């Protein structure tokens, strides 16, 4: 997994997940391509984008692990944001142009009271500077052309929200939310209720589903050497680790890898399972109506594809 390879050297077959601590200023695709280059991996994908301004947890899938990247798309996420009051911008964050300035007349108690109103189910209007598409074109492309389109509100859930004390005209905001939540929009909406406007000056993602930033690895660590990269590479089934594991005997494994359902003992109530044979991860299986385990998504190298 050395990054020091000739430019025309063939890419390696690397299967696994890297819980990457993306630095601010790097795009999600830039992060993916950087990590792919460090591992010299033939294939890679991420589990959903993180704004360039934001830092924090970005799980990256290499090789066969990309088959399971969608398993985090619906996961809840936690963010730590820095909100600046009194200034609004075109993008809702520090990268945009200032659109208004207003005096800040508030205190910690009022901010806490307003922030608490946003807990639970709320409606958000997606920002124009977002990757959502209209007629095959991202909204941010329209925004860069000076075009503003009507956007329907979307229902999202704020599971938990809290704020720190006001420091000058800024305060910290911690949010645990459902998929599809825009923290930029949340900050803007809080600022509007406070009567002074607001935008984000910092954003860090600290958790996705069961994975937390404490388990993530920085770019500096990955660049420090081959052993560090090997230590950071998690198993290909990491994103499916919430599913029960089912071991198969050699005969059953052979049938399973040839696309046949197999009769094996299953955990009570199981619907989908991670399937193993001799300690090797074969892929995912789904329990069919007859109570047999049918292959759903197989690891190509194990299946001989």
Automatic annotation (TrEMBL):
InterPro entries: PsdUridine_synth_cat_dom_sf (IPR020103), PsdUridine_synth_N (IPR002501), PUA-like_sf (IPR015947), PUA_sf (IPR036974), tRNA_psdUridine_synth_TruB (IPR014780), tRNA_sdUridine_synth_fam1_C (IPR015240), TruB_C (IPR032819). It is an enzyme of class 5 (isomerase). Keywords: Isomerase, tRNA processing. Residues 184-224 form the tRNA pseudouridylate synthase B C-terminal domain. The active site is at 51 (nucleophile). Residues 244-299 form the tRNA pseudouridine synthase II TruB subfamily 1 C-terminal domain. It catalyses: uridine(55) in tRNA = pseudouridine(55) in tRNA. Residues 36-183 form the Pseudouridine synthase II N-terminal domain. Signal peptide: none annotated. Belongs to the pseudouridine synthase TruB family. Type 1 subfamily. Responsible for synthesis of pseudouridine from uracil-55 in the psi GC loop of transfer RNAs. Pfam families: TruB-C_2, TruB_C_2, TruB_N. PANTHER family: PSEUDOURIDYLATE SYNTHASE TRUB1 (PTHR13767:SF2), TRNA-PSEUDOURIDINE SYNTHASE (PTHR13767). This is tRNA pseudouridine synthase B. Gene3D superfamilies: Pseudouridine synthase, PUA domain. Its EC number is 5.4.99.25.
């Amino acid at each position: 997994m050395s990054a020091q390879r000739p430019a025309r050297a063939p890419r390696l077959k690397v299967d696994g997940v890297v819980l990457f601590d993306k630095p601010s200023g790097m795009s999600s695709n830039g992060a993916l391509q950087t990590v792919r280059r460090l591992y010299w991996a033939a294939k890679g994908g991420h589990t959903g984008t993180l704004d360039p301004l934001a830092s924090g947890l970005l799980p990256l899938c290499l090789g066969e692990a990309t088959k399971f990247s969608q398993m985090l798309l619906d996961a809840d996420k936690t963010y730590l944001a820095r909100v600046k009051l009194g200034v609004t911008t075109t993008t809702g964050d520090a990268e945009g142009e200032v659109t208004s300035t207003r005096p800040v007349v508030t205190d910690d108690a009022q901010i806490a009271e307003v922030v608490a109103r946003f807990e639970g189910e709320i409606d958000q209007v997606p920002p124009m500077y977002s990757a959502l598409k209209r007629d095959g074109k991202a909204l941010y492309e329209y925004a860069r052309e000076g075009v503003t389109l009507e956007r329907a509100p979307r229902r999202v859930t704020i599971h938990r929200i809290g704020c720190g004390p006001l420091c000058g005209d800024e305060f910290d905001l911690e949010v645990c939310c459902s998929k599809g939540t825009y923290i930029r929009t949340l900050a803007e909406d809080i600022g509007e209720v406070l009567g002074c406007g607001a935008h984000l000056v910092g954003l860090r993602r600290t958790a996705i589903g069961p994975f937390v930033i404490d388990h993530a690895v920085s770019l500096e660590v990955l660049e420090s050497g081959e052993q560090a990269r090997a230590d950071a590479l998690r198993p290909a089934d990491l994103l499916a680790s919430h599913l029960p594991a089912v071991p198969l005997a050699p005969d059953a494994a052979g049938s399973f890898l040839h696309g046949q359902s197999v009769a094996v003992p299953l955990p009570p109530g199981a619907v989908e399972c991670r399937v193993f044979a001799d300690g090797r991860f074969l892929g995912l299986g789904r329990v069919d109506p007859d109570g047999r385990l049918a292959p759903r998504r197989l690891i190509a190298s194990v299946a001989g594809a």
